[in-house]
Write a structure and sequence with these properties.
Blueprint (H helix, E strand, L loop, with lengths): L2 H19 L2 H11 L4 H9 L8 H9 L13 H14 L2 H21 L7 H4 L2 H6 L4 H5 L11 H7 L27
Helix pairs in contact: 1-2, 2-6, 5-6
Amino acid sequence: MSPGGHLVTTTAACAAWAALTGSLEVTAAVAVGGFLIDVDHAIDYVAFERQRDLRPGTFLRYYIGGKVQRAVLVLHSYELFTMLGGLAWWTDSVLLWGYLWGALMHLALDLVFNGEYTPRSISAFYSFAYRAAHGFDMPTLLALPNDLEVPRGFWAGFFRGASVPGSGQVARRGAPSVVTPVSDPMA
């Protein structure tokens, strides 16, 4: 799912949680799980992809344009969710349950939307052990289309993501591909 899609769905979930619980803390925990969980993409970008251009437009084009070669994504893993679920159950932490609710919503949306274009198992991709067994190599893990077009402008990319040329279909971030050159004044 595009970052903008996660922002919209997380905002709606937070509004619902705030109305239901009246708790600012739980609402913030849902926001962290639903949207800020994507901080692991930034960590991968710097630590494993060795990218140093931290401008938002450049970072966004890198992901939705399919330049990613390594996908460690520690926060996007069944194993971490299982451990956090056990810890939330053990401690009965409402904040941890809120985080998990947001994170599981994020993961469910990723499974639905990011799996549309991969010939490989998107379900397996979200296992840290599976990614590790494949050397965190994104082309091996997903084998997504290599002819993605990145929309012009930061906000179009943020809310729509890339698309497969001529199809009108939105592609998902992280696909190994050749990217249509983009001039982005927001970069």
